[in-house]
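Researcher: Good morning. I'm working through a list of sequences from a screen, and I'd like to move beyond sequence-only analysis. For each chain I'm collecting a predicted structure so we can compare shapes side by side. This is the next one on the list. No need for commentary yet; just the structure.
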Amino acid sequence: MPNGVPETETHPTQLLRRSLANGRLGHAYLFVGGDIESLESHAVELARTLNCQTPKATGETGIPLEPCRECTACRKVDSHNFPDLDIVRPESKSRVVTVDQIRGL
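Model: Good morning. Structure tokens for this chain:
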């Protein structure tokens, strides 16, 4: 996930990279805390990487490690138009995601 994430390599980013390389991903990830734009950037980069149709690099298990950023899936993720990607943002400055927002998924 080298290109879409901020330059600083945070501990969660390192864990995601290691999980991808080892082929050991969780069934879901919840990105919380810190700067919302940074969190969304990490989440979108992970979605782009996992759904890329022609990745630049793959791990030993075949899981994509670096997206091409050019295929249909990458472009749909970038435009937030990928059918399996739901980004939920807080509706207010309180940074709280409501139950109704989740039910609306």
